[in-house]
Amino acid sequence: MIDKIVSSLDAAVAGIHDGATVMIGGFGTAGMPNHLIDALIAQGARDLTIVNNNAGNGETGLAALLKAKRVKKIICSFPRQADSQVFDALYQAGEIELELVPQGNLAARIQAAGAGLGAIFTPTGYGTLLAEGKETRRIGERNYVLEYPIRADFALIKAHRGDRWGNLVYRKAARNFGPIMATAAACTIAQVDELAELGDLDPEGVITPGIFVQRVVATATAAC
Amino acid sequence: MNRLNRNEMAARVARDIPEGAYVNLGIGLPTKVANYLPADRDIFLHSENGLLGMGPAPAPGQEDPELINAGKEPVTLLRGGCFFHHGDSFAMMRGGHLDICVLGAFQVSAMGDLANWHTGAPDAIPAVGGAMDLAIGAKQVFVMMELLTKTGQSKLVEHCTYPLTGIGCVNRLYTDVAVIDITRDGLLVRERVDGLSFADLQALVPVPLVDAGA
After folding, report:
1. By CB atoms within 10 Å of each CB, which of A46, A125, B3, B131 scores lowest?
2. Which ipTM did the prediction report?
3. What's the CATH superfamily of A17-194?
4. Tell me: the pLDDT tens digits for B13-30?
């Protein structure tokens, strides 16, 4: 019997190694898998490359991971916010590397990885600082920039409900990067608000098919 | 001259958004446009974080941390609205499916280049978000900004000195003193506020304007 449901948050983040590239879902705090991030902090992996839209808000979730100095590099679109003080201090001290990517290119590069594409030509960023030094091509009437896929060793995402085959549905705008990150990581770990019995999720409404998910953990699971 | 304040600028932009339009309002000043869209017009507001049919802010106490806009403020979803992931959301933008986006700007050039994401200051932490996708993706890009900086410099320039967001992407400029179309035939002044002559307006900007009403 296939059962991707793991019984603890510790088990969910087991095997995330030093130097791993880890995608973390969420847009600001909506959809951020805080339980998994806390478990990752406790697990101790370091020198991580993190892929997220932002660079942490306040002091919890991704900000807490940064504050624990586990992150070597962050790939994101919008690090600077009113409450990104943890990132700001690390960046200004030269203690974290930043790869800034326009948000749609971030999404497209993640999707390219998940879909097995070698690269994409995107019009976004053409002629700007963020395309400097990159290969470009004119196709038809437009100019495009060559961008490479972003793939990860692990993706940590938050979903609303999941079953033992790894099928997931999300809640409102917490969906954001979850479904695409799930496709782009060798091991996708989903924290869910509720576990569903196999067959209880409407197959017409499944957003992430279980093939993209390796581990599911319920946030109600007692930590550790 | 009757310079428009920011609410009046937002109301002016709202007048030009037709029934049925799919629209993205950038964070900051453009967000105010939503306050002036008439309730009897079906206009679909898109939010980059995966919403179509975005509604106004919820009543106090009704906020949901998983229902936010691009500025990460609580919002609501209209009946008929829907959610989708970031790949779909940016396909809507980059793929030319949005009719209009409204953006703020530091500078716009006479060729329609847009600078709105980074001052270029060496100590600034850069952040781009969806600005570059919006700038090049929507069918029409409207910029709303005061025409002059606080020190009186024109933000409509021959060439942007701030780092670019997109090249030749701006179609129309809504300012506090005039509405200007950026076209192959030049900068067409569509409207001026009362008390500002065409010559007065031309004197404020370093690039040649065309009086569309002339």
Report:
1. A46
2. 0.96
3. Glutaconate Coenzyme A-transferase (3.40.1080.10)
4. 999 999 999 999 999 899
